[in-house]
């Protein structure tokens, strides 16, 4: 399999706020569009409306998917571990579901080792889908396996993630469970963390999201949600707003997305709800939704319990059942 580094687009400049989130978009649009015009390039507003053309070598049956209520918008946030020598996978996959009717938000993390059917490629871990065929293939894979396609996505590489956290001045994460694991950024090469509000810089936050030697894939999904909410809260701070130009610069080469300004405008206030514990409900797949399994090749993966996951998705998508 040949890996290529995810292509960055100028959309990434504006989609910074998917990750920190959506707060200074208007100011960013104005500033970046002016800079692009001065450089003789099309304005950002124009480039955000362009659709990328992709080649598709398979077909899927798009009937029979979940019927979402009116006012529901869905976003898939992806974390890429790109390395020049080995390509990348999306080890962080967080579905954000916004109910525009009551400004409620649901979060659902997909374990990276979830074993799914990939159209045109057979069965493999879900974190390999994006590198195989981009976001279109990921969207189709989610539909084939779970009956839905996210409206939009944003993907950030992990080096860019660290830089954004640092430019924000660090974050304070509400850690809900103790953990310890191997790390590379202290003399002991071992990090210990206890429950409570913990300040983190970029290296610490990335370790907390990705630690895996003494932790499980299911536990990583919880930690990713905690960090996303901490970044959302920090983005509302005076420090983040006053430093928005540096935040945009940090994200310039890190974020890829299909979101447009039109998509973002109605959602500013609602995404501010990411900092409101009463407005956000987090879901993670546990032993009821997945089962550990070893493939013929010796890989440890998680088999989905489709009925249980469907039951969870009804709640995530605000679908009322009799």
Account of the protein in words:
This protein has 322 residues and is α+β, with helices and mostly antiparallel strands. The chain has one domain: Aminopeptidase. The protein is 35% helix and 23% strand. It contains 13 helices and 14 strands. The strands form five sheets. It has a six-stranded mixed sheet with strand order 11-6-1-2-3-12, sandwiched between helices. It has a two-stranded antiparallel sheet with strand order 4-5. It has a two-stranded antiparallel sheet with strand order 7-10. The protein starts with 10 loop residues before the first helix and ends in a 6-residue tail after the last helix.
Topology:
Layout: H1 11-14, H2 16-19, H3 25-38, H4 44-47, E1 72-80, E2 90-99, E3 104-109, E4 115-118, E5 122-125, H5 129-146, E6 152-157, H6 158-167, E7 171-175, E8 179-182, E9 190-193, E10 196-200, H7 202-210, H8 217-235, H9 238-242, H10 244-251, E11 255-257, H11 261-264, H12 268-271, E12 280-284, E13 290-294, E14 300-304, H13 306-316
Parallel strand pairs: 1-6, 3-12
Antiparallel strand pairs: 1-2, 2-3, 4-5, 6-11, 7-10, 8-9, 13-14
Helix pairs in contact: 6-7, 6-10, 7-8
């Amino acid at each position: 399999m040949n890996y290529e580094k995810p292509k960055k687009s100028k959309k990434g400049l504006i989609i910074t706020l998917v990750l920190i989130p959506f707060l200074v978009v208007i100011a960013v649009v104005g500033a970046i569009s002016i800079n692009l015009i001065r450089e003789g390039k099309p304005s950002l507003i124009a480039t955000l409306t362009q659709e990328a053309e992709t080649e598709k070598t398979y077909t899927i049956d798009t009937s029979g998917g979940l019927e979402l209520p009116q006012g529901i918008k869905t976003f898939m946030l992806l974390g890429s571990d790109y390395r020049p020598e080995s390509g990348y996978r999306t080890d962080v996959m967080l579905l954000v579901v916004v109910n525009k009717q009551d400004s409620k938000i649901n979060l659902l993390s997909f374990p990276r080792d979830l074993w799914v059917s990939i159209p045109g490629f057979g069965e493999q871990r879900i974190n390999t889908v994006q590198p195989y065929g981009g976001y279109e293939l990921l969207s189709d894979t989610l539909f084939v396996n779970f009956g839905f396609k996210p409206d939009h996505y944003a993907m950030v590489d992990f080096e860019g993630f660290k830089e954004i956290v640092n430019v924000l001045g660090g974050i304070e994460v509400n850690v809900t469970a103790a953990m310890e694991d191997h790390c590379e950024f202290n003399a002991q090469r071992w990090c210990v963390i206890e429950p409570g509000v913990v300040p983190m810089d970029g290296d610490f936050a990335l370790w907390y999201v990705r630690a895996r030697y003494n932790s499980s894939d299911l536990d990583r999904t919880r930690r990713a949600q905690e960090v996303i909410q901490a970044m959302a809260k920090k983005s509302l701070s005076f420090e983040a707003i006053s430093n928005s130009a540096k935040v945009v610069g940090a994200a310039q080469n890190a974020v890829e997305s299909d979101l447009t300004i039109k998509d973002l405008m109605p959602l500013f206030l609602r995404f501010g709800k990411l900092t409101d514990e009463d407005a956000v409900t987090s879901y993670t797949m546990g032993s009821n939704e997945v089962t550990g399994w070893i493939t013929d090749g010796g890989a440890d993966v998680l088999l989905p319990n489709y009925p249980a996951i469907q039951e969870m998705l009804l709640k995530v998508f605000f679908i009322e059942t009799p």
